[in-house]
Amino acid sequence: MIDLKTxxxxxxxxxxxxxxxxxxxxxxxxxxxTALELAAGLFCEQKVAPFGCQECLSCxxxxxxxxxxxxxxxxxxxEASEIKIGQIRDLKTTPGNxxxxxxxxxxxxxxxxxALLKTxxxxxxxxxxxxxAPNTRSILATLVSRCQRIFFKGxxxxxxxxxxxxxxxxxxxxxxxxxxxxxxTDIKTLLLGWHKDASWQxxxxxxxxxxxxxxxxxxxxxxxxxxxxx
Length: 230
Ligand SMILES: [Zn+2]
Fold this sequence. Notes:
Layout: H1 4-13, E1 20-24, H2 28-43, H3 57-63, E2 70-72, H4 85-92, E3 99-102, H5 110-121, E4 129-133, H6 141-145, E5 148-151, E6 157-158, H7 170-182, H8 187-195, H9 200-214, H10 219-227
Parallel strand pairs: 1-4, 1-5, 2-3, 3-4
Antiparallel strand pairs: 5-6
C-alpha cells in the first residue's frame, strides 16, 4: 500500500491533482495537518512536492497559517454554527485570488454550498480549495461531485478520476463531444482523467487544452481541437 504522501507526489507529478479537494475521515487533526502540508508544497518556493521544503518563507508562513495567499473559511464567530452565503460572496471578491482551506466544510449551509459550487467550477488563476469534512453525507452532493476525494479512513487514498474513454472513429468522437458539452461535464476532471497513460503528443494537447481553459476558450472548441485534430 502506497502511503498518502507518495500518492500526493505521484498525483502532482502526473498532473492528476484537482484544484478542489475534499478530505474525508474522522481524524480531524490528521486532515488539518495534511491540508497545511499539501498547501505548503503547492506554494513552496523550491517547488518540493508534495509537502514543500519546510524551510523557505512560503513553507514557513503556510505552516504558521499566515501566508497571504492561503485563507481559511470558518463560521464568522465561535458561537455561529454555520458558514453563510455572505462569506462565500466575500471569498469570491477577495483580492489576489487566494486559495482556501475550509476546515469544517460540513458547516456550509445550503445557500453557501450552492454559491461555493459556482466558485469551484470557475477557479481564478492557480486557486485551489481544500474542503475538510467527516464524510460525504455531511455535504451537499453536488459539491462532493465537484471535488477530488481524499480518504483518510483505513488505508488513506486519493481518488483519481476515471478517464472517459475516447473512441477511435471521427463520428463517435463528434458525438462524444456533443454529449460532454450538453452534460456540462467538469472539464478539469475530464482532462485530469486523460492524463494517465497519455502519449506525449496527447499530453502536449492536454496541456494546451488546460491553457485554453484558463483563457476561457469555450468547451466545444477545446474538445474539438483536443479530439478531432490530427
Ligand atoms: Zn518551501
